[in-house]
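Re: that chain you flagged

S.,

Sorry for the slow reply, it's been a week of failed gels. I finally had a moment to sit down with the sequence you sent. For the record, here it is as I used it:
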Amino acid sequence: MESFASFLFFLFACFVTWAVIIGLLVLHEYGHIYAMRRLGMRIDNVVLGMFKVGSLRWRGLTYEFGLAPVLAYCVSKDFEVSDTNRRAWVALAGPAATAATGLIFYTAWAFTDHWLMRACVQGSVILLLTNIIPLPPLDGWTVAEHFLAKRGVVLNAQERKRLLVIGAVTIIAIAVVI
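Prediction finished late last night. Pasting the structure tokens below so you have them in one place:
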């Protein structure tokens, strides 16, 4: 009986961890959504995690939820065809939302000392620091790409592909380590 209770506790812990990460990703992606709407860009849908397990339509947007919450992104054809300046502002809005909500969670944790607030603070810090890495497909890359383009540096398809592989490996390594 004790091992069954331990197993149930383990399942609960896994679910809470998944829910916290998905929640933090929603808040992060909302920063991008807010910026896109302010800049007049249409958002097609929002993907939260890999290996889709379900979706939800809310306020005119479809949110797809995945089993492995190691990545999230907004799908927008308008974003893809925008200039690098507008793309950089949208990219910065995600980490800005993460930093702002992280400060709110930190304040709540300071006053309540609740384990869930601490988990949200730690998750926010990890999400923020990971997303500002200047490698594709992370937000830091979109900002770096803007400044490279302003200086006349444009990468060819092969160079972009190499950086994308490095970025993907970096994301996986961070997910495994943490």
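What I noticed first: The helical segments are 2-38, 77-80, 84-112, 115-131, 139-150, 157-177.

Talk soon,
D.
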